[in-house]
Amino acid sequence: MTGERCPQIKINHGGMQLNCLEWGDRSNPPMLLLHGLQDCARSWEIFARSVSDDYWVVALDSRGHGDSDHVPGHYSFVDYVSDLEVTISNLKMINPILVGHSAGGRYAFSYAARNKDKVKALVIVDIDPDSVNESSGSMFERYKNESDEWATFQDVVDRLWSRQPLSSEEMVRFQAQAMTKSKPDGGWIWKRDRSLVYEYERPDLWSSWKEVECPTVIIRGRQSTLLTHETAVKMREELPQCKLAELEGGGHWFYQESPGAFESTVKWFLETL
């Protein structure tokens, strides 16, 4: 689905190594991509390549994900926001556009609320500021009860397809390859620390959301059961500079299920800045 592997960047964060991937020219406006829980930087690769002619695109492996270090006991909400802060500071990203999916969206708008003069724009993909979300809660129960290992690569594909049934087979196979690694003795294993599933925090962030001042767009797949239409509308109404795009053809993982529509929507929003 993609060509050559993109360059990696290693960032030291208090002795912990964070891993980033980058596309495009550093002379272009910066864009930082933040994945959701259990995903990884490479989950963004299709989108990143599609905008890399116009932007310097960096995707972060949050701690405990992808090729960043595992640090059990240090997976609090504040810890994850600090990864974002250190990445922006270390790479000297000036007024980056932050694109965050799911948990990554929560980190993105929390950072933007606290750093009003350091973020050019926000793209928030299918996430809410609530402390409790019934759909998210059921996901966590599944994560806690399922194994981290699969006997075959097709088992991984089937697992991911069950969560995002509107994705193409090509996309699901790419994501399965990006988020797992083969075991020396056979089979496949998730590329993330299981501890983070138990340590993950979901604080109420409405106060932070209301503090956001930069241009923002919320992108919601109409088939999503996680970010409801009613909550998305409430989020939009809280911010005068906020737009809401609700699109057919996908749910929570809309940027993977309808990559063309997602790319077009992000470009439309950025052209309005």
Word description of this protein:
The protein is α/β, with parallel strands linked by helices and 273 residues long. It has one domain: Alpha/Beta hydrolase fold, catalytic domain (Rossmann fold). 38% of the residues lie in helices and 20% in strands. It has an eight-stranded mixed beta sheet, sandwiched between helices. A three-stranded antiparallel beta sheet has the order 7-9-8. It is globular and about 55 Å long. 43% of the residues are buried. The mean pLDDT is 95.
Strand content: 15-25%
Radius of gyration: 17 Å
The residue ranges in which pLDDT falls below 50 over 5 or more consecutive positions are none
CATH architecture: 3-Layer(aba) Sandwich
Strands of the widest sheet, in order across it, are 1-2-4-3-5-6-10-11
Say what the CATH topology is. Answer: Rossmann fold
- Considering the protein shown, what is the CATH homologous superfamily? Alpha/Beta hydrolase fold, catalytic domain
Number of domains: 1
Q: Count the beta strands.
A: 11
Helical content, roughly?
A: 25-40%
Taking the sheet with the most strands, its summary is:
8 strands, mixed
Number of helices: 11
Alpha carbon gap, first and last residue: 31 Å
What is the H/E order?
EEEHEHEHEHEHHEEHHEHEHH
**Arithmetic mean pLDDT:** 95
* Category by helix and strand content: alpha/beta
Q: Determine and state the CATH class.
A: Alpha Beta
The 3D shape can be described as globular
